[in-house]
Design brief:
- By secondary structure, the chain is an alpha+beta fold.
- It has a three-stranded antiparallel β-sheet.
- It is 39% helix and 17% strand.
- Helix 5 packs antiparallel against helix 6.
- The model has no long low-confidence stretch (mean pLDDT 94).
Length: 134
C-alpha cells in the first residue's frame, strides 16, 4: 500500500468518477493499477507557513483483480479516447470499427453520442478488449 498527501484538487482527479470534470485518462491509468481511497483531508491551517491550498491523504492499494491486458496498448487506447475531451467517443475512435463499439455502448445503456468522460471503466475495458488495433 502507498499512502500519500497531495493537493486536494489532484486527489479529486485521482479518484474521479465518470461524468465529472476531473475524470479522464490519468484517472483510468491509476485505476488500472490501484484501488484509491481517501484517508482524510488536511487543512492548510495545519501547516506553517500556511499554503494557499488544502490537502488530501490518499491510500493506493494494488489491485488484485487487475485486468490481464497489455498495459501499453491500453494506455494508448485511453489516450485516443480522451484525446479531445469535448468530442464524442465516435469522433475520437474514428479509426476503430464502430459496428463493434455501438452494440457495447447500447448493452451498457450509453448513447452512440457519448463522450469518453461519461463511460465507466468497465465499458471502456470492454471496448478495448473487443476493438484494439495494433
Amino acid at each position: 500500500k502507498i499512502v500519500i498527501m497531495v493537493q486536494k484538487e489532484v486527489g479529486l482527479r485521482f479518484m474521479a468518477q465518470p461524468k465529472s470534470k476531473d475524470y479522464g485518462y490519468f484517472t483510468l491509468v491509476l485505476k488500472y493499477f490501484f484501488d484509491i481511497q481517501k484517508v482524510c483531508m488536511v487543512s492548510k491551517k495545519d501547516f506553517y507557513p500556511v499554503p494557499k491550498v488544502e490537502s488530501m491523504v490518499l491510500a493506493f492499494t494494488p489491485r488484485i483483480d487487475r485486468p490481464n491486458w497489455d498495459f501499453s496498448k491500453y494506455r494508448e487506447f485511453l489516450k485516443v479516447c480522451f484525446r479531445q475531451k469535448r468530442k464524442t467517443l465516435r469522433n475520437n475512435l474514428k479509426d476503430y470499427d464502430w459496428s463493434i463499439i455501438a452494440p457495447i455502448l447500447k448493452s451498457n445503456n450509453y448513447s452512440e453520442a457519448v463522450r469518453a468522460e461519461e463511460l465507466d471503466e468497465k465499458t471502456l475495458g470492454e471496448i478495448f478488449t473487443k476493438t484494439f488495433k495494433d
